[in-house]
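batch job 7 of whatever, protein = Nidogen 2
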Amino acid sequence: RARGLPLPLPPPPLLLLLLLLSRAGALHPDELFPYGQSRGDQLLQEGDDESSAPVKLASPLRFYEAQFSYLYVGTNGIISTQDFPRETQYVDDDFPTDFPAIAPFLADIDTSQGRGQVLYREDTSLAVLGLAARYVRAGFPRTAARFTPTHAFLATWEQVGAYEEASSRVPPSEELNTFQAVLASDESDTYALLLYPANGLQFFGTRPKESYNVQLELPARVGFCRGEVDDSKREGPYFSLTSTEQSVKNLYQQSNLGVPGVWAFHIGSTSPLDNIRPATVGGDLTKAHPSPPLEQSFGPTAAAERDYTEDNLDYYDENEGEVEYPPGEPEDAWNGHSSIDVSFQSKAEPRPLGGPASPLPQLTASDRPLYPEAESATLDPQTKEGRALGGVDTPGLNGRVKASRQQGTRGPAPSEIEGDSLDPTRGAPPPYADGGAPPSEEGAPSAHPEGKAVLLNYPVPAHTPPLGRGRQVLGVEDVIGSSTEVFTYNAANKETCEHHHGQCSQHAFCTDYATGFCCHCQSRFYGNGKHCLPEGAPHRVNGKVSGHLRVGHTPVHFTNVDLHAYIVGNDGRAYTAISHIPQPAAQALLPLTPIGGLFGWLFALQKPGWENGFSFTGATFTHEMEVTFYPGEERVRITQTAEGLDPENYLSIKTNIQGQVPYIPANFTVHVAPYKEIYHYSDSAVTSTSSRDYSLTLGTINQTRSYRVYQNITYEACRHSPRHPAVPTTQQLNVDWVFALYTDEERLLRFAVTNQVGPVEGDSDPIGVNPCYDGSHTCDMRAQCHPGAGVDYTCECASGYQGDGRGCVDVNECAAGSHRCGPNSVCINLLGSYRCECRSGYEFADDRHTCVAITPPPNPCEDGSHSCAPAGQARCIHHGGSTFSCACLPGYTGTGHQCADVDECSENRCHPSATCYNTPGSFSCQCHPGYRGDGFQCTPEPTQRPRTVCERWRENLLEHYGGTPRDDQYVPQCDDLGHFIPLQCHGKSDFCWCVDKDGREVQGTRSQPGTTPACIPTVAPPTVRPVPRPDVTPPSVGTFLLYAQGQQIGHLPLNGTRLQKDMAKTLLSLHGSIVVGIDYDCRERMVYWTDVAGRTISRASLEPGAEPETIVNSGLISPEGLAIDHFRRTMYWTDSGLDKIERARLDGSERKALFHTDLVNPRAIAVDPIRGNLYWTDWNREAPKIETSSLEGENRRILVNKDIGLPNGLTFDPFSKLLCWADAGTKKLECTLPDGTGRRVIQNHLNYPFSIVSYADHFYHTDWRRDGVISVNRDSGQFTDEYLPEQRSHLYGITAVYPYCPTGK
């Protein structure tokens, strides 16, 4: 650029970017794209591993270089362009997946039992497209400045939970996640927006299902995968965002778009796109930034490694090495740090905080990425909420915020902060009347006479308000007025301990007073009664820090970085660590020891008759500071909001820092001398004003600077009890040791202070101070020091610990029985304490100790209040609470609220030679006269053959008897082929005999009543009929499917070709078995199966009372596929352990190995009895193939060995004469003629098929991903139905049972 040429104005998307970057708050749940069934969303079926039906897109979208017209949404936080494999094949594995994947939060998610819902839709509304366009343009200002999407696809996971093993002892986790993915596309490009609202991610990973008792949790995967791109062997490109738990946490804390929780990516284009391209406006996101835990920051080893020169930097004594610190995890991922945006302006000289507004053009409301409903709203010109609170400039939002001031306060001059009113160079008076340096604390009069509280006009704690959401901020004059009564009570509505004692801490007692009740901590505890901590015990603090700072002239932003503090209560030491503040800001914040000094004041060592801050505030308060630096008069405001104690008794706190701080060059160290602060106490507020000097040193350079700090702490005090007379209104905090350090390698800012609270005194300390008061005692850090005469003292372990005071260990109240947990509750031991949790189905009563039963919510599906169609037409599906949905039953169509019968006869489902009869919800088929079959397959009746001797004799006798014989008259019995049945009897009598093939009586076989002759050699007549097995259910008459599912064989009837899922049942339970191959003998109605667990082949009759019979029990390793030849009465099987194919008679005799060479993994096998052919598959991964031979093992040859992967299932259809197979590698269902010609693809989007069978014009295959039976139409290739058994486990073999033996002619 030529020197002197003016910079052009940025394009409009950059203005939008500046607006997005100006907001500090994380994404609010209300700021997600609008969703819900009222918006047209479809609801994914609840469950552990569900996937949607294919969603046909109105306009195809681009993903990488390819174009797709269908999308699938899965329970497990994932979107794909194809149906998903079984979850165990991808949920617990790292990227990449072998199928296309868009993963906003890939983990083992379970929405069963109403734990959340998954919603999805395609949207073309202008509101949604406009919002998506603004986000994309902001994230890609150069390449997508004119991006105008025509379609958007939205998927929302709302309040979904992680999969958990069912347990009656442990209630389901309350950690639920909400997140959203939006795919916006035009004719050439597709962008993905991933949104994670504040508190939307409460769990960050899930346990593998096969981890058993191993406590292993895998972090969720977030990213994009192209999948395998050609022959299932070459890995496609992929893009991964997360690898550790910390990187998952950063999803809602950071952004590559400038709005914490919002991420944008360019994922597809007609132009070359080698891989996913992320937006990068949020700063450099490619470097790893470890986040050391607190123990690494202040542990004994860490302290020793730093070679400090100060004599008093021994943070912990030898006992403190055993302390458990808040957990932390170093993060090595590219995004393993909190949201950071450091902007350096090299050309234009920026103005300090509060300077003139930016010269950039101002944004209108229509430029903001808000909901369309909010875009029409305008800001009131007198009360615009857009401006950052406290006078911090926000581009494009000029507002007016009133600064507060109290009489007698040496602070900013009263003014309306607007525009540049905070700029010290534009006429604002100096902070002190004489314009000189601020006086010292001792030399200045009390800043707040009469002990009045001052509430400075700081920003609301935690975050700048989101755009479009108003928030009111009040100065002290708005709240307190001229008195100190911040909180008021109405005696007419008196609250008593009887009804409200549950508001007190479990370590407090409740006392009623004239106007209400108050809580008071028990002996050996301290606090405000609502929050009580054990005296002498160490304490911990966890929190988040956010900031919008100007360091010198450089703006720096950070969001929700971690803060941890550890306090040794019995000697007043407080250590604070803040991670991942950008280096310029962290270096400049080194002098601000009050950030960590708050914890020193809260838990300061107390001199006799004096109390530290926690005794007043408890765990809920607001600490506000305004700091003015000299000589530059930079001003910064800090708000720290305490939000109570967590279940581990850790104090939770949020910190927000806004303003300008002086720049401190790198490598300079900061030293702050010990100091004293005077605190003024009123009923609900504490104030302090002080000055502080600090020095900057680097080698021989030594500079001294100073700042003035105003502090204001407000809390809720109990007004009903009289004020404690022993506590003065003024106390002095002595900070005897101060330390501040920042290490760029660890990106860690540390503060450490030692504090005492006591009376206001001079510089000279009293002689002979007791060790309990100066912290020089030798009590355990979990013990309280009790002063004696002179310098004597004793040590007593804090409540919850036991020992001699010099050494203290935790007391397990749960094991000792000293807890107060009531019935139906569980006691959980904590360090120094315990907590109570209610058992599943119970919740706490008001006393927080008693557990009462939870009243189950109403179920509209059970109480009949739903609006579904009648039970015979529809079913009601309960989704938790009062929500439900309706679905028409098979055979009906409609919304579920209105269902109409489907006329299947109009769909030509019967055979052309059959008549169709429609019935409500079903139909039936009947072959025409002259044809036989089930109506779906009809074959002509065989031509009339000559009558046999048996048939002619039978006809003659019947004619002689007049057509109907008496019960005692003999009629010859003939079989279907006209042969004499070996056993003949006189009518219905017990007089029977055996005959030969010509009908002549066999001598000596005529029986007496009560016995039946044994007409078949070696078969003894049964004396007692066996009773039906209790685990065998006789099948119904008609066509049905039999499928193998581990230890059982299932029965699934067919109505035509439709699955009668409501009539499915278990046919046979086989405990201890793993049934794989299964087939049926239509002549004897026997089912045969292989068992890889028992290494056997067995069979059982379908007649009632039949017992399973093992027919092959030796010489097997892993018998899998099985095929029955009902013509030749033989069976064939594969053994993948022995790499063999064998044959035997149906009773197991005449066993013969047909093939034992050139086999690697033989699996499926099929037989064509009519033509005498045998077929089998070998899924050898190096050379998969399908082979054939004669039934005697002759003429072996390869039919198919190209373009196949894992041919698991194989079937021969005797009617269509097609050999078909299901391939789990290519995901295809294909067919060919018996000679290998005429190959065609029926379906190319299978999941993970195992076994397959054909019937009529349909295929039915078992699927390992769906754990069910899937039906596919042979002609159209469409999926028509699926059956998922209630007990979810792998399904193996499947076969069809006909009411007759198919001829295949």
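notes: Confidence is low (pLDDT under 50) at residues 1-24, 211-215, 282-492, 1017-1034.
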